[in-house]
């Protein structure tokens, strides 16, 4: 089973950014950058300035997760900073979904939409065929380290079935509590991209290289027939 790993840079040790990017550049498939405005979620995280600062030090795709009230205000600066793909929450683009999607496509960027735990898959019906990625939040957005919401496994499976029925090729991504306790059920349900944060990769007591090796072993073990 093919899967992709997207480390969440909000969870990295900011004091070791250059060192940790060197490790991730050799191993990760993309980099996940959370941008928060303090309104859509009651927290602040990374920014266009952060993307601009890391851009010279990585050739990996930078995937921006916009947890903001007005995503259109952030798109221009993030494109200029070097972001490669954008994931926007379904609730905030409902008034201008097609405008935002086409703005990003015209700029040569990939487009994703994020579903909060209480947001149904049906919210995407009219523009699902235009998306490169759908992200399922398995925790409520805004903070790292929250407990896994098990009801989201069925949402992932629903997306997987819909993707097959409509013969679409968007990636199914999972954000929240991706770790050794959840790898098997997430991937079996149809997840393809795992966002790894504080519970699955970045740990203050373990070097990143070692944590990556442990994570890889845990995923492969979860996918092995003997684990079933």
From TrEMBL:
Swiss-Prot/TrEMBL cofactor(s): Mn(2+); Fe(2+); Zn(2+)
Cited CDD domains: RPE (cd00429)
Protein name: D-allulose-6-phosphate 3-epimerase
Gene: alsE_1
Domain of life: Bacteria
GO biological process, alphabetically ordered: carbohydrate derivative metabolic process; carbohydrate metabolic process; generation of precursor metabolites and energy; nicotinamide nucleotide metabolic process; purine nucleotide metabolic process
EC number, UniProt record: 5.1.3.-
UniProt cross-references to SUPFAM superfamilies, sorted A to Z: Ribulose-phoshate binding barrel
InterPro entries: Aldolase_TIM, Ribul_P_3_epim-like, RibuloseP-bd_barrel
Gene3D superfamilies documented for this protein: Aldolase class I
PANTHER family reported for this sequence: RIBULOSE-5-PHOSPHATE-3-EPIMERASE
Pfam families given in the database record: Ribul_P_3_epim
Keywords of the record: Carbohydrate metabolism, Iron, Isomerase, Manganese, Metal-binding, Zinc
Quaternary structure and partners: Homodimer.
Molecular functions per Gene Ontology: metal ion binding; racemase and epimerase activity, acting on carbohydrates and derivatives
């Amino acid at each position: 089973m093919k899967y992709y790993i997207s480390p969440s840079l909000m969870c990295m040790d900011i004091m070791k950014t250059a060192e940790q990017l060197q490790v991730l550049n050799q191993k990760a498939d993309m980099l996940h950058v959370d941008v928060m405005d303090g309104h859509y979620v009651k927290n602040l995280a990374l920014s266009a300035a952060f993307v601009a600062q890391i851009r010279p030090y990585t050739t990996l795709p930078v995937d921006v997760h916009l947890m903001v009230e007005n995503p259109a205000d952030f798109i221009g600066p993030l494109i200029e900073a070097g972001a490669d793909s954008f994931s926007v929450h379904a609730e905030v683009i409902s008034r201008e979904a097609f405008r935002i999607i086409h703005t990003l496509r015209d700029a040569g960027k990939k487009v994703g939409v994020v579903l909060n735990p209480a947001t149904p898959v049906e919210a995407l019906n009219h523009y699902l065929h235009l998306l490169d990625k759908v992200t399922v939040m398995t925790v409520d957005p805004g903070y790292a380290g929250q407990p896994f919401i098990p009801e989201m496994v069925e949402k992932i499976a629903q997306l997987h079935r819909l993707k097959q029925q409509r013969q679409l090729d968007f990636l199914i991504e999972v954000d929240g509590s991706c770790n050794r306790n959840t790898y098997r059920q997430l991937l079996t349900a149809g997840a393809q991209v795992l966002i790894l944060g504080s519970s699955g990769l970045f740990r203050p007591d373990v070097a990143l290289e070692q944590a990556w090796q442990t994570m890889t072993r845990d995923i492969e073990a979860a996918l092995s027939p003997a684990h079933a």
